[in-house]
Amino acid sequence: MPATRIVKRDPSWRRPSPRRVRAIRDRLRQLYGVPVNEPHGHPIAELVRTVLSQNTNDRNRDLAYQRMRERFPTWEHVRDAPLEELIEALRPGGLAQIKAPRIQATLRELDDHPDLDWLPRVPREQALEFLIALPGVGRKTAACVLIFAFGIPEIPVDTHVHRVGGRLGFFRPRASFEEAHDEMLAVTPPEEAYELHMNLIRHGREICRPRPRCGECALRRMCPAFRTGAVTPVATSMRAAR
Fold first, then answer.
1. Fewer CB in 10 Å around end: N or C, the chain?
2. Nearest 5 degrees, angle CA 233-CA 235-CA 237?
3. Using CA atoms, how far apart are residues 120 and 235, in angstroms rounded to an integer?
4. What is the pLDDT of residue 111?
5. What is the pLDDT confidence band of residue 118, given thresholds at 50, 70 and 90?
C-alpha cells in the first residue's frame, strides 16, 4: 500500500468511488482498447530511458539511448566513461549536460556490477524507497522501473496522467505529482494499473491536451473540469462525442 501522508483537505473534492473509476475505465477501453503489459526485465535500461525521456520526445530519447549503448555497450562502460564523451553521445536527447552526470551518479550507487534484478524479490515499498533514494530518481522514474521492467503494479504520473487525472477528479485540484501517484494507486485495482496508465496517456495526447478538445471527448459528461468550466477547450463541434 502507498505510504500514508498527511495532505491538506480540499472540501470541494472527494475521492472517486469504485463505480466511477470503472465507468471511466470502461469508456477509455471503448476508445483505446485494453493495452497489455509485457515486462521486459531490464530495470537499469528502463531507469536510464526514463531519465533520458525528461523534457524531450520518444524519438529523441530513443536516439540518445541508442547512441549511448553503441558507444558504451555495458553499464560499467557508461558509468566509467569520460563525462564529455557521454554528454556527446546523449546530445540528441537534450539536456545532456544534466542527464549524463545524473546517469553516472545513479550507476555508481549500484555496486561494481550495476544490478537491479533483485527488486521483485523484496516488498514493493522497499523497492520503491531504494529507487527514489538514487540520485535524480523521482517517483515517476521509480514507478516506470517497477511496472515496465517487472510488471509490479504502479501508475507513473507524467504530465499527461497528471493533467487528465486531475480534470477527471482522480485526485484533488493542484495535487502534487507525489500525491497524485498515491491517489491513483488508491483507486485503481492493481491488475488494471498498466491499462489505466497507458489509456490516460493516450487520451492526454489525442484529446485532453493542455487546450482540450472537449467537443470530441467521449468522457466530457463525466468530467468535473468540463462541467464546472475549469478548462478552456478549443472550439470544436460537440457532435463527435457521445
1. N
2. 110
3. 47
4. 86
5. very high
